[in-house]
Amino acid sequence: xxxLSGLDASFLYLETGNMPMHIGGLAIYDQSTAPGGAVxxxxxxSFFEKRLHKARAFRQRLVNVPMSLDYPYWIEDPDFxxxxxxxxxxxxxxxxxxxxxxxxxxxxxxxxxxNRPLWEAYVIEGLDNVAGVPKGSFALVTKFHHAAxxxxxxxxxxAAIHDVSPEDTVQPPDEEWQPESxxxxxxxxxxxxxxxxxxxxxxxxxxxxxxxxxxxFGRGLLKKELHLTTNVPRTRFNDNVSPHRVFDGxxxxxxxxxxxxxxxxxxxxxxxxxxxxGGALRRYLESKGELPEESLVAMAPVSVRPxxxxxxxxxxxxxxxxxxxxxxxxxxxxxxxVHGESEQAKKLTRTLGASLATEIxxxxxxxxxxxxxTAYGRYGLAKRLPPIYNTVITNVPGPNFPLYxxxxxxxxxxxxxxxxxxxxxxxxxxxxxxxxxLSAISCREMxxxxxxxxxxxxxxxxxxxxxxxxxxxxxxxxxxxxxxxKKRRAKTNGSGRAAAGKSTARKKxxxxxKSTARKKxxxxxKSTxxxxxx
Length: 534
Prior knowledge:
Helix content is about 40%, strand content about 20%. By secondary structure, the chain is α+β, with helices and mostly antiparallel strands. Helix 1 runs parallel beside helix 12.
């Protein structure tokens, strides 16, 4: 029996009817590579059953402490039923991409049953008219509670149900699985008394270990070597979320992204993705007449998991506050600015210590967190309090080679994640086999047109690619402007915004208005980005 950490438990306490706190994915498989060229649902159940031992999250369920006096515990579920967790549905004809997105969104909107192991998998057949996908392919929508896994530990789940070849290479477990009996209330209260007695000493140790961190942080702020992002604009995504979800996604070439990043010294693949998101949100909000003058700000989760704990369950993450420079119209200038913002955010994270947030979460009161989350939604505090972020952008790297499940080759992989009151747009980035997929999860009231937003992602990527591939002579001229930007940034808060940034953004926005209609009409033109890679 293992106790949840404070951070893991916080995802349980944050959950409400409108805010299920699970993560997952949508993967598409070509079953023509499987033995016999097809896979039956009975074979899928047998496949999962043989692999349950490869990840503890499959058969662990929660046990709550009486009166929620302490964080819950995991036990091996004595009533585990595989057929409850693995389910089978089919798309109606014509079985196209839009129908798949709607079905995935509906499944993702439903909370998990906390009286059972916190995961579900849905096999979806009938993908007969999805562009780039062989007819007869199937999809797998997975859901795991965030209390059980984060993006990195989720790799253990992926490894459990995938092989590097069509052959089934799973090895039987070394020991037979043993379920656990439910602990008594008295036993749980005894454990609670012991952990509660230790906490004051553990907290004192935490303060002592981080005293020098606090001093370095304060000195960095005074010397303006570190900068906090405080000017977060309010957008349509900074409101209470509804129980309804929308989902869509696009795929981009990793080679093209690498070619783009090479045009800005020091830029990373993640910088390119964040810049594309900034351009897409600029385009999307501008079309609604809602583009703020200030840059939108993203929460960027950062793994703090040591290499020797990569397969450990639970969450080991910190976060960065990252302006996505939606206030800059020029795509290449935006990428340069995003890279600068990213370097500043990483410097701040290094100064504070990557694991500090995880350690502090260990001391959050178990009941208070849940009450605060409930009050935040019930009293509409997302509307009344200043926003902290506008969106979440999280990058989960994957293998650069094909994977197989049940002998079927994975064609594409898209991420799914939670949205919360005040942050109603979640954008997961998944790398797989030379492609990068970028998805959008929101609620229907905030984003009634997810397909249009993903078209904005495509256009933003194409604009950035064209800007990055300009002839050398034009690039030099642009670099001259960038140097000027750096001088202006030095006179401000160091976050990459010039003193005249607001007026510049207004001028650029005005200049763009005439071409907005023309750009929208090109949203569906053929490009190198795809809904599903082949």
